[in-house]
Amino acid sequence: MHTREFVAIAIFALTYLLLSGRQLRILPLNRPAAALLGTVLMIVCGVLTPEQAYRAVDYDTLVLLLGMSLISAYLYIAGFFEWTADWVLRVAKTPQRLLFYLVLTASVLSALLVNDTICFMLTPLVVAVVARGRLPLLPYLLALAMSANIGSACTLVGNPQNMIIGHLSKIPFATFSLSLLPVSVAGLAVEFAILRFAFRHTLRAASISPAEAAPRRADWKLIILTFGVLVLVFGGFLAGFNLSWTALAGAALVMVLARRDTHEVFRLVDWSLLFFFAGLFVVVEGLAGTGLPDQVYQRLHGLFGASVSAQAWNLTWFSIAGSNIFSNVPFVLVAGKWIPGFGNPELMWKVVALVTTFAGNLTILGSVANIIVVESARHHIKIGFWDYARIGLPVTILTTVIGVAILLFVG
Q1: 194 backbone dihedrals φ, ψ, rounded to 5°
Q2: Distance of alpha carbon 258 from its chain centroid, rounded?
Q3: Mean pLDDT in runs of 10 for the chain (411 residues)?
């Protein structure tokens, strides 16, 4: 192994140690800072040139994430998320029904507006609403995180890894959604059944306090305007327009028509998330330049099998492991180079999208959405690793097995 390759692998390993260190409270750097450090080290140590680093960043993915985040910010300013949370509590008659409505709401919004953003904006509201209803927090916070992950799988704008897959695979928006929609619906049904069974005694002993469930005021003019633009944006997606610039054009249109102070809007964008993904693109490119991912694939290629079915199932288990070891976005960036070598590349892209998203429900560290929910609610409840994993493990296994089976059937 040449010195440059060794240095690249060492920087990659250090970057992910720091990412895990922040989550486990071992080291002080947070995820964006760790990705930025890895990026700088790749340049300083001569693994990549500045020009190679610039080319490594998938700007289409960042633009798409920015556009959808800006549209979500206008809905937040208009009070849509707060109104929705209050409405769900007001119409729910039982804790079990409230759990169902939360699963449905989080999944639908995540499919439309990016799961990380939805978790960021909904978690404080869910905490407030559940507290007003004098209900236990844990089942509802788990429902929010897991439903956001599962619901986001059915569109190319539901989560960052799907955005990357959309750009790499060139699968039409409608084609992707038609295949993944039944998978997400089945996954949500499984998740709800497991949550309801696991917390059956807790939910049965609880009751909603209707007096505390008063609806809040919302700016319906801005809400209608934003959703009107969102309809146009999704119309553009279905028509085959560029995903990134269609989303950003929609965000710009809302800015022009809403006539609000844009400083407030831009403050709601999670810029650290954009820096995080930009840094990951560079760090993963530095690793890819060593040839190590290709060598791993060449050694494992024969184990995936020859038939489409065998390749799909073996890719499933490999993706579950890769997503939880390296995180789903960097795994997709590396594994994306292998997909064209499979028997049915389009199907395998869909399998990777499904599995890397559903695998995020395995542990707290499985997805950014999980971390956002747990960290946002930490002042109200401490969710331990096993508190999450004891529900996440059966949810991940069952939803993934059923989902891949459906994909193999519908194609």
Answers
A1: -70, -45
A2: 28
A3: 83 78 57 87 93 89 86 89 77 88 93 85 81 84 96 92 90 94 97 96 79 65 94 89 91 93 88 83 84 71 79 90 77 83 91 94 83 80 86 96 93 65
Question: Looking at residue 211, what is its pLDDT?
Answer: 46
Measured distance CA(291)–CA(45) in Å, rounded: 18
DSSP string covering 168-231: HH---HHHHHHHHHHHHHHHHHHHHHHHHHHTHHHHHH----GGG-PPPP--HHHHHHHHHHHH
User: What's the pTM?
Assistant: 0.77
Are 375 and 382 in contact by the 8 Å Cβ rule? The answer is: no
Could you tell me the maximum CA-CA distance found in the chain, to the nearest angstrom?
Answer: 69
Cβ contacts of 187 within 8 Å, gap of 6 or more: 150, 153, 358, 399, 402, 403
Cα–Cα distance for residue pair 364/383, rounded to 1 Å: 9
H runs (alpha helix) in 46-199: 50-56, 59-77, 80-91, 95-113, 115-132, 137-152, 160-169, 173-198
What span, in angstroms and rounded, lies between the C-alpha atoms of 347 and 339?
A: 9
Rounded distance between C-alpha atoms, residue 99 and residue 94, angstroms: 9
Cα separation values, 50 from 3, 40, 278, 399, Å: 19, 9, 13, 42
Q: Residue 209's pLDDT is what?
A: 66
401 Cβ contact partners less than 8 Å away, ≥ 6 residues apart:
none
Q: What is the pLDDT of residue 3?
A: 84
